[in-house]
Amino acid sequence: MTLMHTCFTVEITGKVAHVQMSRPDELNTMTAAFWEEWPAIVRSLSARGDVRVIVLSSTGRHFSAGMDLSVFTSGALSPAGEPGRVNMNRVLQVRHLQDSISSPERARVAVLAAIQGGCIGGAVDMVTACDLRYASSDAYFVVHETNIGMTADVGTLQRLPGIVGDGVAREMVLTGRPMSADRACEVGLVNAVFADHDALIAGVLEIAHEIAGKSPLVTWGNKESLIYARDHGVADSLQQIATWQSGALQPGDLTESLAAQAQKRPPVYADLDPEPGALPGA
């Protein structure tokens, strides 16, 4: 099943949805349509219940060159009007972009990013909101906002230190220098480096199908708890997982896991229920 969008294509195979940025000639820059389509796609796939993993990849030489120049030149960043009202509306605009970037964290499913070539500016924000990141050997990462006279404002500064450590994050942000794929793997920004784009896609899809074989309720619980623990202390996080388990820890998946082990077969877990209001097959 393949769905076409302005900036993305979506192909669903089994329990895995492969979402590809599809504007290679334009270096997959983040246009106005991008900011609307990406969260809508993630929400729709997460809501279905039968998709368990999303793989985000791209096409062409570069993963993404970041924010499209049209966003900067459209006048949206410097509208005319009474300064107080204009400035507060800009807050809403930034929050809208932040919400778009944060959509993978809100998904019930795992979101994996497969990165080739340049991952620049807003693309770094995008991939740091994903659960796992992988790269081809030609990939590089740049917090490019520093190089064009602005402070990154849609997620990199908030998520990157927790992924690579404070010192490495500060160096990336304050210098605006590119980080190679090998260095990114060394510091934990990516989990593995593949020889080329084809090997990257094949390898990440293989990992995605492995995750899709796990209980989707467990994957959802793992995500919720890891993100909560990142943003809260140990005591609060232990209370959160205790509350989660009070509802989610039921015998069905445990029983199936033990039966599958005894019978030496892969376990078969039920899909999540569709979210309220989800469109079948959307």
From TrEMBL:
Keyword Kinase attributed: no
GO molecular function: isomerase activity
Similarity annotation: Belongs to the enoyl-CoA hydratase/isomerase family.
SUPFAM superfamilies to which the protein is assigned, alphabetical: ClpP/crotonase (SSF52096)
PANTHER family found in the cross-reference section: ENOYL-COA HYDRATASE
PROSITE patterns reported in the protein's UniProt record: ENOYL_COA_HYDRATASE
UniProt xrefs under InterPro entries: ClpP/crotonase-like_dom_sf, Ech1-like, Enoyl-CoA_hyd/isom_CS, Enoyl-CoA_hydra/iso, Enoyl-CoA_hydra_C
Species classification: unclassified sequences, metagenomes, ecological metagenomes
GO annotation, biological process: fatty acid beta-oxidation
This protein's pathway: Lipid metabolism; fatty acid beta-oxidation
Keywords of this entry: Fatty acid metabolism, Isomerase, Lipid metabolism
Keyword Lipid metabolism: yes
Name of this chain's protein: Unannotated protein
